[in-house]
Amino acid sequence: MKLLLAGGGTGGHLFPAVALAQLLLQQDKTAAVQFVGTERGLEQRLLPKLGLPLATVDMVGVVGRGWRGRLELIPKLLKSLFQANKILASFQPDVVVGVGGYASVPVLLAAKMRGVPYLIHEQNAIPGLSNRLLGRWAKAVCLSVANSDAGFNEAKTVLTGNPLRQGFEDITAEIAVPGKLLVFGGSQGARAINETVIEMLPLLKSWEPKPEILHQTGEADFHQVQQAYRQAGFDPQQVVPFIDDMLTAYAQASLVICRAGATTLAELTSCGRAAILIPLPQAAGDHQTANARSLEKVGAAKLIPQADLTADRLAAVVKELFEDREELKRMAEQGRQIGFHGAAGRILNECRRVLEMAPLEGD
């Protein structure tokens, strides 16, 4: 199979695509994969390290733009559509999988124009704009979350779960004692989380034992946060701009402070790690709050809206959980019960099914 994976920008879109590529290449030594993203996304930095090929299109997002910005987007879309068409002509994929994000739009449009079948993978509880628009021509729509099929043709949807990179499903359920406090705000960091954790450090300093922390800040806030740790008497080496080895980070963590993107939640539930979730309020359709509530409902996480986030409140929740190991263990177990393993294999099976089936009525 020649598989083209379109989308990216953030880890939430990119990591499921990486999981699909890694599993396909592991299953079939004759297979070939090609990623298409942008030069500004995480894919530009991460994929070369993984030895995975990347081609780029010059596309930008539409969310948050006024009518003037949307008009200015038309030439950009036409240019990126031309670029995507060249990439498809060169690689000649059997099937395309769109994983969301604005980079997927011109690629899936080009696939439609060239008669190349494509699937969509929707990670979130509330579907993104790109996937909603392009789902009408998809051969299948793979969902990570049950009941997230609004706006899609129900006959095309299949619940697959969210693919995880190799190794995540092998992380032991045993929680390290005392374990690290893992803090991250997604692949690009989260300023609200970074600033609140900085303010919380003096409150943690008096604890015995003082918690060990691994804090991913994103590039923009790295030096500021590292300096704040140093000034508060914490080891500044606990602060990094990006965590390359997330498998070890999760394995060593007993509690996680993070956003509520779909991929993050899939990782938490697969590993079985209790979390304090701080959804990104600007996320399209407020889908991160919907994601977070699904974990809070089953007792696998604590939800703190960003509007209510303070250093005192965050420190109180962290202290409560770190002092109650049984509660941490219970939350972790609840998370693992709703974890969805084998998602990458299900999506690849959908790709194979699409290649064998006749065109759906209305395509």
Q: Would you write up a description of this structure?
A:
- By secondary structure, this protein is an alpha/beta fold.
- It folds into two domains: 2-163 and 342-356, Glycogen Phosphorylase B (Rossmann fold, 3-Layer(aba) Sandwich), CATH 3.40.50; 168-337, Rossmann fold (3-Layer(aba) Sandwich).
- The chain is 44% helix and 15% strand.
- The protein contains 13 helices and 13 strands.
- Strand 2 (32-37), helix 2 and strand 3 form a beta-alpha-beta unit.
- Helix 1 packs across helix 13 and helix 3 (67-91) packs across helix 4.
- The protein is globular and about 65 Å long.
- The two termini are 22 Å apart.
- One of its GO terms (cellular component) is plasma membrane.
- This is UDP-N-acetylglucosamine--N-acetylmuramyl-(pentapeptide) pyrophosphoryl-undecaprenol N-acetylglucosamine transferase.
